[in-house]
Specification:
This protein has a 6-stranded mixed sheet with strand order 1-2-6-3-7-16, with helices on both faces. The protein folds into 2 domains: 3-170 and 294-372, Aminopeptidase, CATH 3.40.630; 173-291, 2-Layer Sandwich (Alpha-Beta Plaits). It contains 9 helices and 17 strands. Helices cover 32% and strands 24% of the residues. The chain is α+β, with helices and mostly antiparallel strands and 374 residues long. The mean pLDDT is 97. Helix 1 packs across helix 3 (99-118), helix 3 (99-118) packs parallel to helix 9 and helix 5 runs antiparallel to helix 6.
């Protein structure tokens, strides 16, 4: 199978984040086993989805991990001009959900496996494919926790998120949470007898706006756009009818933090403002949705130099989007981003990747294999 055949098979799996992924994980595992890789499926605590870890070469020697996620965002947009889960090729463009984010990278890595298995690798190349990245990097922490029993400590991780095959050394960290305020319902003609949850949420929302404005004053890290940490209220919902005192209101919040700042700490003022409502009779709930740390690989890191050699270009300092790379770095393993496609095409109708981007990624992985050969 060539890279296009593999991508065709991968896109056909509607592996939407938060759903069971046994079909795509099972197919990848079979493909790898048939080509001589050592493969293990690592079920997550959900019970219906798994991470996958595969090794080519000696597992007890430090090597490199190629990291990607098997899940995709939903494809319910009406603007799709073809079935999002059927790969469609038009000239050099290959359309389908996940082609860029990030089944293109998975396909390139899998297409390189036959060449890698023919080499006598002195250092191994591992494939680490996760689940539920798109809903907050929920799967990969379970995989990272198992690494000490799966292989020697890796020399580095290449996370294949779409970067135009230009390596990237950094990104911001992120934390998201849902605030829920329960009040007391009643007829709107007697507001004195109820507790209006939407009015109460206004206090927390005001704290979020104030915190966002404060963050824009710094501290700054000029490698990012914007150069400061940020906070936003993304979704708010509450109420049934204009003449009913709303008894529940929810607010989804997100913070993105420059390296050195804990993203969860940026949400703390909003949580504190909401909890101050409890003495008035409101019930306040706080549910973390997702969190991952920033990535900050030093310019002079060996992994950065390696990617410079593999791609022919110096790594970029940072990108605005987040990845699983920060979680690997937090576990003590150097990580860098480099993959085919453009993030600007992701999460949109008619998502696509270019044929030459897939070829460039496969070529990079095969060159990495040659460097790891005895």
């Amino acid at each position: 199978m060539d890279v296009f055949d593999i991508l065709d098979r991968l896109v056909a799996f509607a592996s939407v984040a938060g759903e069971p992924n046994g079909d795509i994980a099972g197919w990848i595992a079979s493909y790898l086993k048939e080509r001589g890789a050592k493969v293990i499926l690592l079920p997550g605590p959900e019970g219906d989805r798994s991470n996958l870890f595969a090794t080519i070469g000696p597992a007890d020697v430090p090597g490199y991990i190629l990291s990607g996620h098997m899940d995709v965002v939903p494809a319910g947009e009406p603007q799709w001009t073809s079935d999002p889960f059927t790969l469609r090729r038009q000239d050099e463009r290959l359309y389908g959900r996940g082609t860029t984010d990030m089944k293109g990278f998975l396909a390139a890595a899998l297409a390189a496996v036959p060449a890698l298995t023919k080499l006598r690798l002195a250092r191994p190349i591992h494939l680490a494919f996760s689940y539920d990245e798109e809903v907050g990097c929920r799967g990969v922490p379970h995989l990272i926790a198992r690494l000490p029993e799966l292989c020697a400590k890796p020399l580095g991780v290449i996370v294949g998120e779409p970067s135009g095959m230009r390596a990237v050394r950094g990104h911001k960290g992120k934390a998201a949470a849902r605030l829920t305020i329960h009040g007391r319902p009643g007829h709107s003609s007697r507001p004195d007898l109820g507790l209006n949850a939407i009015h109460a949420m206004a206090s927390a929302l005001s704290a979020a706006v104030s915190e966002a404005e404060q963050l824009a004053q710094g501290p700054f890290d000029p490698i990012f756009e914007p150069a400061y940490s940020s906070l936003q209220a993304g979704v708010i919902a509450g109420g049934q009818s204009v003449n009913i005192i709303p008894d529940i209101c929810t607010l989804d919040l997100e913070a993105r933090a420059i390296p050195g700042v804990d993203p969860a700490s940026l949400l703390a003022p909003v949580k504190a403002r909401a909890e101050a409502l409890v003495p008035q009779g409101y019930v306040v709930g706080w549910t973390p949705i997702s969190a991952y740390p920033a990535l900050s690989l030093p310019r002079d890191a060996a992994l950065a130099a390696l990617l410079c050699e593999l791609t022919g270009e110096a790594p970029l300092a940072a990108v605005s989007y987040g990845t699983e790379a920060g979680l690997y770095q937090a576990a003590g393993i150097d990580a860098i981003i480099c993959g085919p496609g453009d993030i600007g095409r992701a999460h949109k109708p008619d998502e696509y990747i270019l044929a030459d981007e897939l070829a460039a990624c496969q070529r990079m992985i095969e060159v990495l294999g040659a460097r790891c050969a005895a």
